[in-house]
Design a protein that fits this description.
- The structure is a homodimer.
- By secondary structure, chain A is an alpha/beta fold.
- Chain A folds into five domains: about 5-95, Beta-grasp domain (Ubiquitin-like (UB roll), Roll); about 130-205, Roll (Ubiquitin-like (UB roll)), CATH 3.10.20.880; about 210-345, Nucleotidyltransferase, domain 5 (2-Layer Sandwich); about 365-405 and about 510-635, Nucleotidyltransferase, domain 5, CATH 3.30.420; about 415-500, no CATH class.
- Helices cover about 30% and strands about 25% of the residues of chain A.
- Chain A has 16 helices and 29 strands.
- In chain A, strands 14-13-12-15-17-16 form a six-stranded mixed sheet, with helices on both faces. In chain A, strands 28-27-18-19-20-29 form a six-stranded mixed sheet. In chain A, strands 2-1-7-3-5 form a five-stranded mixed sheet.
- In chain A, a hairpin with a 2-residue loop joins strand 24 (about 475-480) and strand 25 (about 485-490).
- Chains A and B meet through helix 4 and helix 5 of A and helix 4 and helix 5 of B.
Chain lengths: ~650, ~650
């Protein structure tokens, strides 16, 4: 054996490779086809590429990313360790990409907030689009199959794929690319129903440039996450208000606009929003648009119709028929979305005209569809959707809440972003204490802050049970242009104007919470169950992360039940979309979920308006439904 | 039961349907989903829709299309028979579309020429593109699935299809079409590998407008057949010379041209040729281009490369690697072919750089791949391809013959079309007797005529064994511009100039026949078998239909063996293409054939040039190889 060569063995597989001394363990793992997680790409920053040296030595740079205990047990960072002689290293489960449990920024964040579910949802890692690096044997007189057949043969040596398809454009480019690249190419494969498409063939090894986007097209807010498909990590996220809002805050208004003026304009603006988000994400992360080969989108049925250019008009008219709830994968370019021109756009399947792909994704993410115990998922957005069920059965319904909880249609409202008041308390002295996202000066109030302020105003007696601001108690309640408003933060302390909550804001928020609570109540009644039968309450939405259970109950937004049962799960739509993006198995599960669930039409339910009117009070006309809130008010009043 | 309603029962299925009295049996059969063959569409012209009345009576118009015997046995024409009361009719096998044996004009024509094969090739009728008429239940609150899901559900009620796909454009059009059509639509399905594509959805019942095209892209000649997919019949055919000829008569020349100037021009002209042929076929048959949903093409590997815009340059250079031998189905519009814009172009799989899809189709059509006995297929075109084998093994090779047998590169040569001399004899008195295609005045000589004239000139002593014209025997051999030529028909009797055969023509024809015979000989030798081991000789080509076996042997084009073994099978490329078009099973079989066959490279065979030189004589330098020709010449000389 040559002096400058050493053997590296990866355990538990026992995969052995010879490398030049001086090569990093991370590089050696890549060459050996043993995939080790690394976000920073070898800069020693992320601390993900942990390996355990079992035999032999490596030369490793000092790092603060390993605990003393870990170092004693032999842990090293693969990217910071050079091979100096024969060595055996173990790849611990948490450092693996293949077969690992999906992890996710959101999931990790929310995992801190509640006990993990007993039935952890795990799916096999197999992204909808993936790259494979191939070294093809060069063509000879003896092995003279076509370039196309040679590519397929090599792909099948790496991956069991029965049905493959390739577009003519890719085939046309093959002879040149294969020979220019010395037969070493990276191919991108995309799932297309029962077949797998060879989307792209690139020269050399481009496996490290392997990104995709998940998009949640909300009625009010559009959220985009940039995902590294090699590591399953969400690299970055960005959100914006949906520019379609100028055509109507609510879905129905936009559909009517589309009927009168055509849906083209609505498609154009949402595509532009998405392109802007993608553009921000790629430039901020130094990624080429061409390296984004896939995009998964979720959203309610109308939003997906607008995005795909499907006529939405029958969604709002009896018998409420969507054009399509299982849109096929298409090229993103077909609707004008700018990623790699051959990149695919996947739509998560929807359920009905008024319960969309966002809920399918939410059910996937929360795992409701596979647990024994009865669960409820309340997704609070411009439309509120409610799912009740378990692995035996699931029903869902939808209620039009308006965009108040997304900070829209509220004077000082804003999206959950930098400078938004996300938590708020009114002290016994009547002082307002708050925290902002990012910690800087406040710019407005996001959903979680709005829930807090409503509950706190009620608790502190600034508003009565009907939500009317009481003037004269405190100078903070003032009259502006003939309407009362509560001064939350004066302009002197903000990044702009006074931050206020007005009487119309309060009415908007009450309508929103009433719509959702009424829907929950009716669904419970219709199923002939009690709140106490529900063992787990998932509250989803993009309204900010640290929602107060007490304040949400005081407001009458969620039922007054055992606090232990309540879990805030954040934006489950985008979380589910990312799970589907990272796992074909999860994507397939979405279809099973969408097929299994029963849609329950509230629009035709006779008692809905009564329920809605009762729920417009704080917390409800029927105080017995919220015993802890009634008790709290009694205590405060000194009864 | 209402008075004007009657029951019609179709046997042997027992399918019963109620129809208004006065409805034709053909219409009743369509409504019952029992498909009865009908080319003329109910005009009482084609005589295909024969049914047998078993019980009850129908009111039927007199027809000359049924024999007295048939009428006595209860036969009626379904389109000419009105339901007047309850009736039971039997659909005899020959009137069925589903499951029937593929029939074909060519096949029928050639069946007259030789005894049918013992192992008749039959495939299940299931065209690559097909139409289904659907009556969907209208959407209601109770049955409120999406338009897309409703369509799929209804298709699956008619046909077991696991994987379906639909393009966004078709989905976009669905809501409008379904409602405009009162939920009665015709859908066109196209096979796409493992999935079936919903290519088109049309209002109402358009099942009778269901056509496709088969195209044989030959180096010299392009042939197009128009097929009625409902009846499997070839309605019409048209051919033209390949306009690429101006860039080189032979494939290699054209590839060199493409390397120097780009392949675009070559693609454009062949697409234009194809579009012209299609245009002639549709206008002559009153068909709309939009009703042509599919096109199957065959051709040698280079021609398919040109057509699909694949770089052909490596076909001619060692190690002779094509870009693609299994091209995927694409939209015909993607290469500029004008049929329905969503119509699909299927390419039959090819075998190697120098043995193409035309030979796969030929093997399919002749059934060589599935018989016990050893067969040879000699496909005579600008490239001659030879296949030897049976169900156990198959080998093939290719030889560049030049276009002489297609009438090109020969002074008075022409395609086998109207006015071509297709048979010719020189009498003992030295008179030339001939017949033309269509029976009119001659315009030129096609392949079969050229074979005849060469053999007859030799037999009559006008040329010697080296193919030299002998001057002075007869005034018919004359000198023009320093070259001898034989006057076949003087201008006074033709539709133009003198029809002649010149010394260079003869040399061209000898080179062509020598190239083919040498290839046959080498393949036989390499396999270590004898001519006598071969039990069946299939001679394929577009050179005219009624080739003389004796003349072909006298010329030394085909081996001097038992005449019973020799079968002229016409253009097997187009025949195979049509079989694939009409049967998915046949199309799939093409892939099996292409994968099974072994390509034998003559270019690298050392003895080829010697074999070629020996074969350039009449019939061959070695007279013992052609004992019957040697015998004939002896008899003539009175030895």
């Amino acid at each position: 054996m040559k002096k400058d060569i050493a053997k590296v063995t990866f355990l538990p597989e026992g995969e052995t490779i010879e490398v030049e001394k001086g090569v990093s363990l991370l590089e050696a793992s890549t060459r050996a086809g043993v995939y080790v997680s690394s976000i920073c790409g070898g800069d020693g920053i992320c601390g993900k590429c942990r390996l355990i040296v079992k035999k032999g030595e490596v030369k490793t740079r000092p790092t603060t990313l390993l605990a003393r205990e870990d170092i004693k047990r032999g842990y090293v960072l693969a990217c910071q360790s050079e091979v100096v002689g024969d060595v055996e290293v173990e790849v611990p489960p948490e450092s693996r990409i293949e077969g690992k449990i999906l992890i996710d920024m959101d999931a990790q964040r929310f995992r801190a907030l509640y006990a993990p579910m007993k039935e952890q949802v795990t799916f096999r890692y197999e992204p909808l689009v993936q790259k494979i690096y191939l070294e093809l044997p060069p063509a000879t007189l003896q092995d003279n199959i076509s370039d196309h057949a040679r590519l397929y043969r090599e792909i099948r040596r790496h991956k069991k794929i029965e049905n493959m398809q390739t577009g003519l454009k890719v085939i046309r480019g093959l002879p040149h690319i294969l020979r220019e690249a010395g037969w070493k190419v990276t191919t991108t494969l995309g799932v297309r129903g029962a077949t797998t498409e060879v989307i792209q063939v690139e020269k050399g090894n481009t496996k490290d440039k392997n990104f995709a986007i998940a998009i949640d097209v909300g009625t009010s807010t559009v959220v985009a996450h940039l995902v590294n498909l090699n590591t399953s990590e969400t690299i970055d996220a960005e959100a914006t208000y949906n520019s379609q809002r100028v055509y109507g805050e609510e879905v129905t208004r936009r559909i009517i606009y589309a009927e009168l003026k055509g849906a083209d304009k609505l498609r154009e603006v949402i595509v532009e929003d998405i392109n802007n988000l993608i553009s921000i994400l790629v430039s901020r992360n130094n990624i080429r648009l061409n390296d984004i080969m896939g995009l998964v989108c979720v959203g309610n049925t109308a939003m997906i119709h607008f995005l795909l250019g499907l006529d939405p008009s029958r969604i709002r008219k009896e018998p409420y028929i969507p054009v399509c709830t299982y849109p096929p994968p298409i090229r993103a370019a077909e609707v004008g979305i700018k990623i790699n021109p051959r990149g695919l756009l996947y739509s998560i399947p929807g359920i009905a005209s008024w319960v969309g792909a966002d809920i399918t994704a939410g059910i996937l993410a929360t795992g409701i569809y596979q647990v024994e115990e009865l669960c409820i998922l309340i997704d609070i957005g411009t439309n509120g959707e409610i799912v009740i069920g378990n692995k035996e059965w699931m029903v869902c319904c939808s209620a039009s809440a308006g965009p108040a909880f997304e900070g829209s249609g509220v004077k000082s409202g804003m999206r959950a972003g930098e400078g938004a008041i996300e938590r708020l308390e009114i002290t016994e002295q009547g002082k307002v204490r708050y925290t902002t996202i990012g910690g800087g000066r406040p710019r407005g109030i996001c959903g979680s802050g709005l829930i807090d302020i409503m509950a706190q105003l009620f608790k502190a007696g600034f508003v009565d049970r009907a939500g009317r601001l009481r003037a004269g108690i405190d100078g903070r309640v003032r009259e502006q242009d003939g309407e009362f408003e509560f001064l939350v933060v004066p302009a002197s302390q903000t990044d702009g104007d006074d931050i206020v909550i007005t009487q119309p804001d309060i009415e908007n928020l009450l309508r929103a919470k009433a719509a959702i609570f009424a829907a929950v109540n009716i669904l419970i009644k219709s199923l002939n169950i009690e709140f106490s039968d529900i063992k787990r309450v998932h509250i989803a939405g993009g309204f900010g992360n640290y929602l107060s259970k007490e304040n949400a109950i005081t407001l009458g937004l969620i039922p007054d039940i055992d606090r232990e049962k309540i879990q805030f799960v954040g934006n489950t739509s985008i979380l589910g979309a990312k799970m589907a993006l990272l796992s074909r198995q999860a994507f397939d599960t979405c279809y099973k979920i969408a097929k299994r669930i029963t849609y329950y039409d509230l629009i035709t339910y006779p008692g809905y308006m009564d329920e809605f009117m009762s729920a417009k009070f704080l917390p409800h006309t029927n105080g017995n439904r919220f015993p802890s809130v009634t008790e709290m008010k009694k205590v405060e009043k000194g009864v």
